[in-house]
Every structure is written in C-alpha cells, then in structure tokens.
Amino acid sequence: xxxxxxxxxxxxxxxxxxxxxxxxxxxxxxxxxxxxxxxxxxxxxxxxxxxxxxxxxxxxxxxxxxxxxxxxxxxxxxxxxxxxxxxxxxxxxxxxxxxxxxxxxxxxxxxxxxxxxxxxxxxxxxxxxxxxxxxxxxxxxxxxxxxxxxxxxxxxx
Length: 157
Fold this sequence. Notes:
The structure is a single chain. The chain is mostly helical. The chain has one helix at about 5-35, and strands at about 130, 140. Strand 1 and strand 2 form a beta hairpin.
C-alpha cells in the first residue's frame, strides 16, 4: 500500500481504515461472545461445553459416598498372606551407623497389597472337517457354530 501524496488523499485513506478497524472490532467482539457462551447462558447442549464446564454447586449436608442404608464393605487384611516381605532398617536415620544384630526388631505395623492375578485369554479353536459322500460324490463340510464368522475374533460375532 502506498501513501497518498495529498492531505485529502490521506484523509480518505484514514476514513477507509477506520471503517476496516470498526469491522474488525465487531468481528472480534462477536467471536468473544461466541466463545463465552455455554449451556447455561445459551441454547447450546451441555455436551458442547468441552473442558470448560461450569462447576456443579456443592451439596450441603447429607452423607457422602454410597447410598443411604447400604452397609458397604471395606477391604480387610487376611490372616495368612501368600508372601511376606520383611522390611528391616539397616542404617540409623539419625547417626547413619549400620544397624546390625545388636538391636531388637519390633514389628511396627503392616500393610497388605492385593494383586490381581494376570489374565490370560482362553482361546477356542474350531476345526472344520469335510468328506466326500461314498454314494453320490458330494463334498460335505461341517458348519461352524453360529457367531464364529471370522478366522480370528474376540468372542461370538
């Protein structure tokens, strides 16, 4: 863009630029308004709120957790664990000296970790056999069970 040589030309250019600036300001304001809309202040559904969902008001009073009247269960220690790992201090935390057999060890407390066994898929292989009829020569093949439609699959189809 080249600047005009006359003052009148400069005034005309300034007027044109002011119109452009006003249009851009309106567009920016429209975009800001659209960005600030959510399901609480517009017709938009809550699923369009994205990660900026408004916080739900905290419920006052009442019991937290499970349903009223339900006793509930807590994980309990077992009397005979499968494996016991004894954690014994070897260095004094105060003076950094080695702790040998000179100190009597006292069981302070214990914790148990319930580890789930590793899962393994149970794989069924269906082998379909066929044979030729001795009377008419027709080739007969056994049918796969219903739901077994692919060479390899997870569960019935």
